[in-house]
Amino acid sequence: MYRIRFHGRGGQGMITASRILGSAFFLEGYEVQDAPRYGAERRGAPIFAYVRADDQPIYERGVIAQPDLVVVADDSLIPVPAAGVLAGVDDHTVLLINSDESIETWKQRLNLCCKVFTLPAQAEERAELRFMGATCTGAAARLLGAVSRDNLARAIRDELAEMADAIVEKNLAMALDAYDRMQQYAGSVTTKTQTGAGDYRKPAWIDLPFEDARISAPDIHASANSTEVRTGLWRTLRPVIDYERCNQCWWVCSTFCPDGAIKVIERTPEIDYDHCKGCMVCVVQCPPHAIEAVPEQTAQLQDAEQGASS
Amino acid sequence: MTRSLLTGNGAAAWGARLALSDYVPAFPITPQTEIIEKISRWTERGEMDARMVTMESEHSMITAAASAAASGIRVFSATSSQGLLYGMEMLYTVSGWRAPFVLVNVSRGLASPITLEPDHNDIMAARDCGFLQIHCATCQEVLDSTLMAYRLAEDQSIRLPVIVNMDGFYLSFTREPVEIPQAEKAADFVGEYDPQNIRFRASSPVSQAVAVLGGAPYSYFRYESHIAAQNGIAVYDQLRVEFAETFGRDYPAIESYCCEDADIVIVMLGSFATKAQVAVDQLRKTGVKVGLLRPRLLRPFPAALFRELLSGKSGVAVVDQNISMGLGGVLHTELAGALYGQADAPRQLLSFIGGLGGRDITLEEFFEIVSVTQNAVAQQKTPPPRLLYTEQEMREMRKLQAAASVERNELNNSGAETNG
Amino acid sequence: MAEQSVSIYRSMKDLPSTHLLGTGTPMCAGCGGLEALNQLYDIIGEKSVFVNAAGCMTLLSVYPFTPFRGSWLYTAMASAPAGAQGVRDALDILIQKKRMNPDDDMQVVVLTGDGSAYGMGLSATSAAMERELNFLYICYDNEGYGNTGQQFSAATPHGAKTATSTGSAGYPGYKKDLFAIWAAHKPAYVATIVGAEPVDLARKIEKAMSMKGPRMLIALSPCPTGWDFDPKETVAIGKLAVKTGVWPLKEYVDGQVQHTKVPRERRPVEDYLELQGRYRHLFEPEKNVRLISEIQKRVDDYWSNVED
User: Fold this and answer.
1) B-contacting residues of A 143-162, CB under 8 Å?
2) What are the tens digits of pLDDT across the range B382-412?
3) Bond from prior residue into C285 cis (ω within 30 degrees of 0)
4) B73 contacts in chain C (CB < 8 Å)
5) B104, B345 contact by CB (below 8 A)
6) Which helix (H) or strand (E) holds C76?
7) What percent of chain C has pLDDT over 70?
8) Of B228, B98, B76, B56, whose CA–CA distance to B164 is shortest?
9) End-to-end Cα, chain C, rounded Å
10) Is C199 helix (H, G, I), strand (E, B) or coil?
11) Touching chains B and A? (3+ Cβ pairs < 8 A)
12) Taking the CB of residue B287, how many other CB atoms lie within 10 A of it?
């Protein structure tokens, strides 16, 4: 059985991507199960989806603990613990990362022995987040080696049937291009038999103790501790204030920020990047257009360079 | 045979469409919404000849559904969790109207704490209300059961509403290959709705659902509903054969997997049971004689069939994805009731509670459940009910509690050390 | 503006002398709600299905007896309008799909007490209006949870003694303006009625029956048991409610509120209050002039706005 996990952010088309792969497998004659997992989080928050494909009916359900292939649509998710990108990844797992950085960089950074592939994207693709999913699916399909080009194309047309023709064509082009680019790695993904009943690891069950309702009721005895949640990790675009152009109006960006992530100190606004989700409301509302939208990745590289040079 | 990839929600919507439902009162709730979105798209485009009306609550939704059924049309509706409970007064009320319709429930854990993920406490809360219940483990089963549910509901010897239950996320949002029956074949199977003598017509006045004074007439009406519900067993068995002959898929009231020669049997409801099936396959490879029973029909409760299937087994592990506060697993106690006093009943009946609020049950845990049951059989001693909850999960909980500023002193003094 | 057609009910003589609603119901002797129901049922007729919410009138149909010549469905306290939705939609679907003779169609009528109408059922009622459900809604308003022994409800008037407001000041709250709440939804028709003014009642039901969409009526229902008066006074108290201006008879059509019976020489509210045991504490052991004048002032204020 193939077990594939997709990681991305809400709004990046991950669910559609997983469904395209599921459909493609299905067209190849496989038994298929695909499902998204998302909670209460919204656009920009980490989400994942999974696909199982087998020549037998599938009875396994739920989260894939030991994936054969992990597809990461957004490499900024890898360091986010809550995203769980690397959960259950072992030597046999193939990691496909949508990233401009080199395979070697990722292997070193993550200290991984497994196969890693990257999908360096064109600038226009980066700007068009909605096509990210299609690109990933195309590459994943080829790495699996189980899906033909024709069935990939058919799956895309089926899954995007309700979309405008131009969008379907664009997705198709991106997916097939990624499929072709991975030609020499076709079939890199291998399957793995799950733990047998002979030598399983006993679950460390415990007897849940009685605890006073002062502890065991779902109450938070704190105020505004949600600031510990780093929603800044949702961001793919970063608003950057050009203080030369800021006219110190002192309220527009701060008042309209839905997250309350801009504070103004002595008429100078400061963005709290730990919590800015990258909605770009401030960029649009700033009267002197003093806030610029910079791709998060570019901004991070600049930060790193500055850090190195200082 | 042509199959399509459908989610459980999609399969439920197809069931409603193929059963030629006339009317769909609706109210959105996660994880059920895709059902009503799909139906609304079909009705808007004229692909489904039904009227959908969005009500302001599930209480009203169930009232409207039953009122329409009581007026003589075929009705479908769907809800989940808090919605099912919000409509609870009406579940009990309308089953007594003896107006048949089908309600899909997408199981989701109940507040508090509120959650979006699945378990069976919602549907268990509705077990005494008079609706029959069919529990599904695959998306195909959701579609097929919806068709069967109309036959069951509308049968002259039953005439009660039916709930078709599926797990949120694990079925509702999960796509699987599903054969969508041909429209004509499905329509033939379900048949035309014959409302018998429940309908509102100017020419034949009727007062429905009236009050009674006194316990004796009350007992009569209530017990008649109970007998009708029990008739569901025999009707279901006939229906099942007809369904299998028509569509080639057989759904016994209790699905039995590798049970014939089994010593140990796992009993559980819903889609998590297919995980147990994988565990059974693996255990069989190592020579463990283990099987799985999955009741599809929970109301009426197939007690006689359980007794028959479990006769002569040495140990039974019931995995309840629900919890009755102050008692434990509901299916466990129901099964104990069915087996009590039977000469050849399994000597060991163990209770496990797992999968609450969508908590996964791993393959290893199923292996361990079987191992614990084997030990109980060997030692002739039944261990106390076991919550599937690990040391690691407790540690994670402690981190959450720390973030929630639960008093350290309280934590330290609570004797919360794990005992492995 | 709706066509102002001529009513067939010009005087008492025009009202039906034989009645459609069956006798033999378990309602209290002298029930003002039943009086109104009898009158309006004559006009609505037996081609109707009454969808009932929990309240005193739950007990109209107790197995095996029903007073309805037409049909009835008992639902629950909160959801009678939703029941009406289901029945109305089903009848429409049956006619549309040609599975029912259109002659078999019926007027769908919700019947609820004030407990449901002013409180628990308000959300379902609001939603039925917002969906423009084609139905009649009749609230028999006896200003308290009568079926359970007259505890105060959102319809209880200021100062009235109820089983849960027994102090010397009576009920501290004020009667909710349900007419205005309903009218804010802009339904086809809203009206107040009382059984003691049968011609006004008949005309309003007649008008409501000539319309489609949500048609909402509140019938003040003098309640001998809950208001503590001699049953023979039901009509007198109903008339006094109108003559003192406590119960304005009015209707809402096309965004306009019209008063259908303006008491030119309003009698003092005292005349209405003193007949009822629920206000006895305003007169004994000594007269509570402050509270009585407060009640009078609220009535005066209401009418001063009308007369302006």
Assistant:
1) none
2) 999 999 999 999 999 999 999 998 875 555 5
3) yes
4) 90, 93-94
5) no
6) none
7) 98
8) B76
9) 22
10) helix
11) yes
12) 9
B74 inside 8 A of chain C by CB: no
Within a domain: C116? yes
- Contact between B36 and B17 under an 8 Å Cβ cutoff? The reply is no
Please enumerate in sequence order all residues whose Cβ is within 8 A of that of C86, keeping only pairs 6 or more positions apart, or say none. Answer: B23, B25, B63, B64, B65, B66, B67, B68, B69, B70, B71, B75
The confidence band for B418, taking pLDDT boundaries of 50, 70 and 90, is very low
Q: Is the peptide bond before B346 cis (omega within 30 degrees of 0)?
A: no
CA–CA distance, C153 with C175 (Å, rounded to integer): 9
Domains annotated on chain A, with CATH: 2-185 (3.40.920.10), 232-309 (3.30.70.20)
What's the pLDDT tens digit per position in C146-203?
999 999 999 999 999 999 999 999 999 999 999 999 999 999 999 999 999 999 999 9
Using a CB–CB cutoff of 8 Å, tell me whether B73 touches chain C. Answer: yes
Please indicate whether, in this complex, the C-beta atoms of A34 and B174 are within 8 angstroms of each other. yes
- H-helix or E-strand containing C147? none
Would you call B200 and C49 a contact, using CB atoms and an 8 Å cutoff? yes
Cβ contact C75–B67 (<8 Å):
yes
Distance of CA A299 to the CA centre of its chain: 18
Rounded to 5°, angle at Cα A8 from A50 and B398: 85
B107 pairs with which residues across the strands?
B167
C-alpha to C-alpha distance for A19 and B57, rounded to whole angstroms = 32
For B302-315, write each residue's pLDDT tens digit. 999 999 999 999 99
Asked if C touches A (at least 3 Cβ pairs < 8 angstroms), the answer reads no
Percent of chain C residues topping a pLDDT of 90: 95
The full set of domains in chain B, from first to last, is 3-195+210-247 (3.40.50.970), 254-389 (3.40.50.920)
Q: DSSP letters of B114-148? A: --SS--SHHHHHTTTSS-EEEE-SSHHHHHHHHHH
In a domain, C5, yes or no: no
Contacting A residues, span 18-77, partner chain B, CB-CB under 8 Å? 19, 22-23, 26, 31-37, 39-40, 58-63, 65
- What's the gap in Å between the CA of A284 and the closest CA on chain B? 33
Contact B35, B105 (CB under 8 A): no
CATH number of the domain enclosing C118? 3.40.50.970
Asked, for residue C63, whether it belongs to a domain, the answer is yes
Instruction: Select from B275, B411, B417 the Cβ nearest to the Cβ of A215.
Output: B411
pLDDT in tens, A177-209: 999 999 999 999 999 987 789 889 999 999 999
Q: Residues B394, B418: contact at Cβ < 8 Å?
A: yes
| Pairwise CA distance, residues B3 & C160, whole Å | 69
Instruction: For residue B171, give both structure tokens.
Output: 């079925």
Q: Which domain holds residue C178?
A: 12-307
% of chain B beyond a pLDDT of 70: 97
The candidate with the shortest Cα–Cα distance to C249, out of C305, C292, C301, C204, is C204
Both structure tokens of A217: 């009721």
For A205, which of B271, B388, B401 is closest by C-beta distance? B388
> C144 to chain B nearest CA, in Å?
22
* Residue C1 resides in a domain: no
Cβ–Cβ under 8 Å, residues C253 and C2: yes
